[in-house]
Amino acid sequence: MIYRYAAVVAASVLLSGCATVFEGTHQDIQVVTNPPGASCVLERQGAAIATVPQTPGTASVRKLKYDIMIKCDKAGYQQAQYLNHSGTTALIAANVAADIILTLGVSSIVDSANGADNKYDSAVNISMVPVAPAAPLAAAAPAPSVTAPSSDSPAKPSL
User: Fold this and answer.
1) DSSP of 56-90, one letter per residue?
2) pLDDT at 158 (0 to 100)
């Protein structure tokens, strides 16, 4: 009986924070732009958390429950943005099942507290739109010419 209890306690400790152990608290996000060569900033809650100096490139971010806005700039192109939503990992279902049986909620608390149960899109493809060239100024149309009737023309009768 004591061995069985010790085994359950050991399993609880080992499996505590399952997603933390198996998936970690950081994630790489690969950013690819069309055309390549853009510089991108990854922001969460308005603060820059990572940069990709030149695409294609990869940034490592801490996983949290908050979304990440990716903003890319390149000369001659409009700024492009991508909202990378924070979702939950596929491992969360197994983690909750094991958590209920073995750790009485400790595992889910650990994973939720450190962000390990969150996940972002790991590959992001962003298309950039060229800046439209300024429209050339239209050539001024010649002013219509108004000619006065000549004195040689006969006067038209008025009605």
Assistant:
1) SEEEEEE--SS-EEEEEE-TTB--EEEEE--EE-T
2) 58
